[in-house]
Design a protein that fits this description.
The chain has 109 residues and is mainly alpha-helical. The protein has helices at 34-40, 51-71, 81-103, and strands spanning 13-15, 29-31. A two-stranded antiparallel ribbon has the order 1-2.
Length: 109
């Protein structure tokens, strides 16, 4: 199964540039939703988190805020590049862990 650029499974949404000849055409774009397809083809839109991802973000928010408190900074603009990358990594890993917890009992395999 192919993946959408956002990391979710592509679910039948695809786009081909038929205005070009077959040998000059870029590969097709596969997406998980029309929103991602719009973003991928640079048309419009913004990726929206699904309901489980929204729940995971809400559950991860205290841990992400605690990370900033441990740094002693609340203004993201004053973070160094290393602190910024550590913050993004922590936020990503924490949210992914929460999504895994939510889906733990729902995925049949």
């Amino acid at each position: 199964m192919s993946l959408c650029f956002c990391g979710r499974a592509a679910r039948g949404f695809a786009w081909h540039d038929f205005s070009r000849t077959p040998f000059d055409r870029p590969p097709p774009v596969h997406a998980c939703s029309m929103t991602c397809l719009d973003i991928a083809t640079r048309r419009k839109g913004q990726m929206k988190a699904n309901i489980d991802e929204q729940r995971a973000i809400a559950a991860a928010s205290p841990a992400i805020g605690a990370f900033l408190e441990d740094l002693g900074k609340s203004d993201l603009a004053v973070l160094t590049q290393q602190e910024w990358l550590a913050f993004l990594t922590h936020a990503y890993v924490t949210v992914c862990a929460e999504v895994s917890k939510i889906w733990e009992n729902e995925v049949p395999f």
